[in-house]
UniProtKB/TrEMBL annotation:
Keywords: Pyridoxal phosphate, Transferase. One of its GO terms (molecular function) is O-acetylhomoserine aminocarboxypropyltransferase activity. This is PLP-dependent transferase. NCBIfam families: OAH_OAS_sulfhy. The keyword Cell inner membrane does not apply. GO terms for biological process: cysteine biosynthetic process from serine; L-homocysteine biosynthetic process; transsulfuration. Belongs to the trans-sulfuration enzymes family.
Length: 424
């Protein structure tokens, strides 16, 4: 499949039916799989043979979708999870334990911030947050002897900060640790973090990959290029006694990281996606290329419209010339960023609320990145637990409106925005 272009892989990668088999990827709605001998089953449990024996660890439907996403991102393997939050958590826990340290961009999704700031902290994993636009020297200063990974979002939710991936990767690698990048907003249609030095990619597949708001899910993709044999990752290189002394790097080579994520963490934590959700996700992936083109086109038009509107106090969209991240966006996402824009309305928070309440086509929902236009006030919802200082560091002002521009007719979207602005 690697010889095909991205939009073709969206449709065909991962599932290849044989003669007389279903053309559409089937839903294998079974928790377990039959084998004729105990020996055959035992070899699966010892990771000596490939195959499916329990859906928590693998399932044909999930496997096909994982192969598709890995192909789209250019990785050696992928693992679906029950949510984007689960993907972020497992991606870090796979190589961090009590006493480890994480360096993260401060401009990240509120749920991920809370994961690092509270939950992982309570598990003994500390985190230092750095400004996404920090210098190399400032980024270097955040590292400790026990730092085990760097985390960032390609395009931050909702501040739309563009991470300098090559800089973050360069510094991470200089310290012998991998760069984990959440690529949810651009999707592999618009950005390939692995091509710019990232080692692990995560997604909330709930967003654009699904695109229809019908399933909650996440995914971890292993780039397969990081050298784990530097003494900092014994969980990958040293014998795992729960698998009779198996070494992941020795037995699985480039796929060591993703294999451990599945056979260790998924085995023990069980944050697995369901076959039905994987099937629904695949339907979304099949049209991802088409939808992202329309999302980006519509968002650009909305951003240009708001930029010149008398009632708008500020507008943030990396596709606008003059935006602080315009050049970085062109470098890392030359085909467009995503359909999300953020802006403020003159009159502050109260005017923002009136505007949102007056929309008719667009919906006020706790969601983003599906085919329907929607809006949200992050400071009072998704990032509500953050302090004023933390909100400022994340680039979220009290008047910020996050608009996820859908794929409706652009004229209808603009007309709805205009009538709501007149009431703000």
């Amino acid at each position: 499949m690697s010889e095909y272009r991205m939009d073709t892989q969206c449709i065909h990668a991962g599932y290849h039916p044989g003669n007389g088999e279903p053309r559409v990827m089937p839903i294998v709605q079974s928790t377990t799989f039959r084998y004729e001998t105990s020996e055959a089953m035992g070899r699966l449990f010892d990771l000596e043979d490939p195959g499916f024996f329990y859906t928590r660890l693998g399932n044909p439907t999930l496997d096909a979708v994982e192969q598709k996403i890995a192909a789209l991102e250019g990785g050696v393997g992928a693992m679906l999870t029950s949510s984007g939050q689960a993907a972020s958590m497992l991606a870090v826990l796979n190589i961090c334990h009590a006493g480890s340290h994480v360096v993260s961009s401060s401009a990240i999704y509120g749920g991920t911030f809370n994961l690092f700031y509270k939950t992982l902290h309570e598990m003994g994993i500390s985190c230092t947050f750095v400004a996404p636009g920090c210098s190399q020297e400032e980024l270097e200063a955040a590292f400790c002897e026990n730092t085990r990974c760097v985390f960032a979002e390609t395009l931050a939710n909702p501040s739309l900060v563009v991470t300098d991936l090559e800089l973050f990767a360069k510094v991470a690698h200089a310290h012998g640790v991998p760069l984990i990048v959440d690529n949810t907003f651009p999707t592999p249609m618009n950005c390939h973090p692995l091509s710019f030095g990232a080692d692990i990619v995560t997604h909330s597949t709930t967003k654009y990959m699904d695109g229809h708001a019908v399933q909650v899910g996440g995914c971890i993709v292993d780039g397969g290029t990081f050298d784990w044999n530097n003494g900092k990752f014994p969980m990958l290189t040293e014998p795992d006694e729960s698998y009779h002394g198996l070494s992941y790097t020795k037995q699985f080579g480039k796929a060591a990281y993703i294999t451990k994520a599945r056979t260790h963490l998924m085995r023990d934590m069980g944050a697995q996606a369901s076959p039905m959700n994987a099937f629904l996700l695949n339907l979304g992936l099949e049209t991802l290329a088409l939808r992202m083109e329309r999302h980006c086109f519509n968002a650009q038009k909305v951003a240009e419209y708001l930029q010149n509107h008398e009632k708008i106090s500020w507008i943030n969209y990396p596709g606008l010339p003059g935006n602080p991240y315009y050049e970085l966006a062109k470098k890392y996402m030359p085909n467009g960023t995503c359909g999300v824009i953020s802006f403020g309305i003159k009159g502050g928070r109260e005017a923002a609320m009136r505007f949102m309440d007056s929309l008719k086509l667009a919906s006020v929902v706790t969601h983003v990145a599906d085919l329907r236009t929607c809006v949200l006030h992050p400071a009072s919802t998704t990032h509500r637990q953050m302090t004023e200082e933390q909100l400022k560091e994340a680039g979220i002002s009290s008047d910020l409106i996050r608009m996820s521009v859908g794929i409706e007719n652009i004229a209808d979207i603009l007309e709805d925005i205009e009538q709501a602005l007149q009431k703000a």
